[in-house]
């Protein structure tokens, strides 16, 4: 009887333990299910984010491939046409350089062009010991000419004078430049005073033959006054000094009645 009672109590204890185990298993099952659900949701979010990232990466790679293809086409085009492009840039550069050194009205050199050529020829004279001549001239009574005939006629007169000066310079190395207003400078490399005077006489003869009317001048036609200077360049002097000499001689020609020229040795 005692054994049976003990067996019953043992069975009751086992039943109680089983109930407790089942209860705990049910509670843990709910927690595990909740964890699994949360994990599944997290994995789904991560998968969606990865898919979006992969789409963005594919878009970026496509754009990069397109840029690479465009760059390859551009490089190929430049390579195939590089000679033409170089020639175009060189031509454009030459045009800009020419314009920067040219007087827009008369087409002769401007002050910048004059300065560069004068410096170059001065240095050449230093090396070779050859003479360099300058002729500085301006139109007599030019303000009166403009007041009488108008500025358009004045511009036309300067253009015609520039053409006359270019025609008087027979050598390619000679330069005609507009110094300012109605003033012009002729640079005559490897030329002495006598060579410069030959150019002066040609200018005066050509202007006399053209006989451009100038009612405001005592001469009745357009004339010029000229200062002529020449020397062998030396390190004690400078191009500016030679130009100043020509300017001083021009002033003397204007003071002497105009329509004439002055040289260090006298006048005509």
Question: Your description of this structure?
Answer:
This protein is of the alpha+beta class and 268 residues long. The chain has 2 domains: 1-100; 111-267, Alpha-Beta Plaits (2-Layer Sandwich), CATH 3.30.70. Helices cover 66% and strands 13% of the residues. It has a 6-stranded mixed beta sheet, sandwiched between helices. The longest helix has 99 residues, at 2-100. The model has no long low-confidence stretch (mean pLDDT 86).
Question: Could you list some keywords that capture this structure?
Answer:
about 270 residues; alpha+beta; Alpha-Beta Plaits; 2 domains; 6-stranded mixed β-sheet; rod-shaped
The gist of it:
This protein has 268 residues and is α+β, with helices and mostly antiparallel strands.
Helix content: 55-70%
Strand content: 5-15%
- Summed over residues and divided by their number, the pLDDT gives a mean of 86
CATH class of the largest domain: Alpha Beta
Summarize the SSE layout with pairings.
Layout: H1 2-100, H2 111-128, E1 132-139, H3 142-149, H4 151-168, E2 175-180, E3 183-189, H5 193-210, E4 224-231, H6 239-255, E5 261-263, E6 266-267
Helix pairs in contact: 3-4, 4-5
